[in-house]
Amino acid sequence: MKFGKELAAQMVQEWQGAYVDYSHLKKLLKEIMRFRQQNAPQFTGRKGSLTRRLTMYRAFSGLTGRGNHVRSSSKENEDEVILVSPVQQEGSENYYQTMFLRSSEEGGEDEVGFFRKLDHELNKVLRFYKAKVEEVKVEAEELSKQMDTLIALRIKVHKPYVEQKFAPAVKVGSSAPATDIASANGESREMDVIEEVETGSEGSSGDEQTRAEKDIKGFRPAPVEVLDHVKINVDPDTPISTLRNVIISSKSDLSFSKEEIRKVEEKLGRAFIEFYQKLRLLKSYCFLNMLAFSKIMKKYDKITSRNASKSYLEMVDKSYLGSSDEVNKLIERLEATFIKHFTNGNRGKGMKSLRPRDKKEKHRTTFFLGLFTGCSTALVAGIFVSIHARNLLNHEGRQQYMDNIFPLYSLFGYIFLHMLMYGANTYFWRRFQMNYQFIFGFKPGTEMGFREVFLLASGLSVLTLAAVLSNLDMEMDPETKIFLTLTELVPLGLVTVVLLITFCPFNILYRSSRFFLVRCAWRCICAPLYKVTFSDFFLADQLTSQVQAFRSLLFYICYYGWGDFRRRSNKCLQSNNYEIFYIVVAIIPFWSRVLQCLRRLFEEKKPMQGLNSLKYFSTVVALVLRTIYDLRRQTSWRIMAATSSGVTTIYNTYWDIVIDWGLLRKNAKNRWLRDKLLISNKAVYFVAIVLNVLLRLVWMQLILGFEVPFLHRRAMVALVACLEILRRGIWNFFRLENEHFNNVESYRAFKTVPLPFYYEDEKIL
């Protein structure tokens, strides 16, 4: 693999603007090479007045106060190619500037431009790296304070036992804090102070006493007095805690309990792991940029037959990028602290937590995907053959089947299509190097790839198609005048199996992904009592495209609860209560989005969230009016439904394209799109815009009463629902692309992990 592609694959995508622009530098080198190939005879034995220019430059540098120069070679002055020096300016950071000493030669302007761009990239990398190192040093200091407080809390909780057994050895308040991650220079407090052993179950007092002994005996702990100035927030984010925090502060006094220590350790451990990942990526950033400078300078030497790389790379090595060792020291100290205090000295366990392994593709996933896909194809063929052989399309029981059985199986068709679209989204997100794992907040190594999503979708299709084939009978028993009970219960059994798999507590069938989905769905239901994350409102947006799926679930309850499923008859639409719930279940996901937007408006104080909530509220109004018209079929309701739907369609379409996708920017580099695009073919974006507009107008089928002669009304409803799911799948890709570029612009590559302790007096440590 060429280094340019390797660099693009390994870089932190949210920091891509801060890396060396290797492709541009390589392009400049190609221009230099092209010029030299065209003028090859002119580049033999030319030295010019190099010595005089070198002398004048050094005299000028002495007057301007520039630092010591780095020579490109140990040869005589006439063999020197470049002079590199750090430039000092008052009130600003130092930067590096290179003087090309052979600019008067033919093609020298191109080489001057190359070194000007190279200096620009070096100074950009140095500024970014210095800023990030300063950030992690501040974070390390805060984590050190948190760790000191945790150890003081452990001592306080076990104090009665300690006073009895180790009273002579303990001098509370007479020592420095126990840990200090931030002391990367080794001059401050040491971290290797406390030894701990593995704590057993909460009921095992012997293990807890042993841990207290190891925490205290022979060591100098952090001062316990620090706990007098500390508040704690370790309660999980629940609806009850949210309601309580509205009345009182979320920061409470310490209770000095063992359960409190466990919660603190869990929360602080997550903060350590996230901080460690940041340090690793910062180290990788330094290494990749150093390697990029080395590669590009060696290419320059090879193309120009000069010897400029040695001096330039020496300067890079002496710069902050090459000489700073603070990140490595922070990594070593963090590893030592985490292993000692969170895994009880077990290095293997500690490093496994800090460095989760990358997820590996399994061959059996591909095998079963192919198997299920083949089975699905065979079942589809079997259904078509059965319908044609038995002439079921013209059977007198067709209407009864479409009114009662088709809505039951259509639920799984909606789910299958949505999974198919999400699998395709996952494939393209990965192909275009979008960090969707970070955006959604997946735990590293647990996210599902497109193969796993397609595997589940194909497995669901096999179950559904097999159930359809077994329940394709349209004739009742001539004696009993009822259908076979067992086959009529197949749809109910199928939905039961799907629900059991979804909520199965055992570690099978991607449990972490299933629970992540269930957790996000619960947070959507309980909106606005949970803090809104991207995965929460993204899932709620997906649910707004599954209105017919919710109505199918409602029909399950009505059909099997109050209908006569053995005779395939129901009176659901004749019930006023059913009509009310028919409207309510459809607006639930939209109402959830309204509440989520209001929660974000309250927390973030952004007016756009208020406008977004108004958008979803207008959709709720339009959906209610369309549903009432569908049930009543009156002209007055038709006019109101058409008016409200037209307004909300314009509102939603504008929001989709301009706000969610970030397109239609008139002054953007890519006219009418945006400055940055992941897909090089711009036509794709314009096609997506047109498709989004057209698919937003499918509601007109209901208002205008458009029907296809060979399609049953139920089938037309299902077709419209599938078109909306397809539109949502297209929306998903460009929505995440826009979110990815928002992260890139703000260099946001890490999530913020809340810390358990809050300090009333910042001077206590």
Helical segment count? 28
Structural classification: mainly alpha
Radius of gyration, Cα only, in angstroms? Answer: 33 Å
Task: Report how far apart the termini are.
Answer: 51 Å
Helix content: 55-70%
Average pLDDT works out at 83
Give the DSSP E fraction (strand runs of 2 or more residues).
under 5%
Shape: globular
Strand tally is 5
Outline the low-pLDDT stretches. Answer: 45-78, 161-179, 183-221
Strands side by side in the biggest sheet: 1-2-3
Largest sheet: 3 strands, antiparallel
Structure commentary:
With 765 residues, this protein is an all-alpha fold. Helices cover 63% and strands 3% of the residues. The chain has helices spanning 3-10, 22-38, 50-64, 108-157, 159-166, 205-216, 239-247, 258-304, 309-318, 320-323, 326-342, 347-354, 363-390, 398-404, 406-431, 436-440, 450-470, 485-488, 490-502, 511-525, 534-544, 547-561, 576-604, 607-632, 635-660, 683-696, 700-704, 713-745, and strands at residues 70-71, 82-87, 95-100, 230-232, 757-759. A 3-stranded antiparallel β-sheet has the order 1-2-3. It has a two-stranded antiparallel sheet with strand order 4-5. A hairpin with a 7-residue loop joins strand 2 (82-87) and strand 3 (95-100). Helix 2 (22-38) packs antiparallel against helix 4 (108-157), helix 22 packs antiparallel against helix 23 and helix 24 runs antiparallel to helix 25. The chain starts with a helix and ends in a 6-residue tail after the last strand. Belongs to the SYG1 (TC 2.A.94) family. Residues 1-314 form the SPX domain.
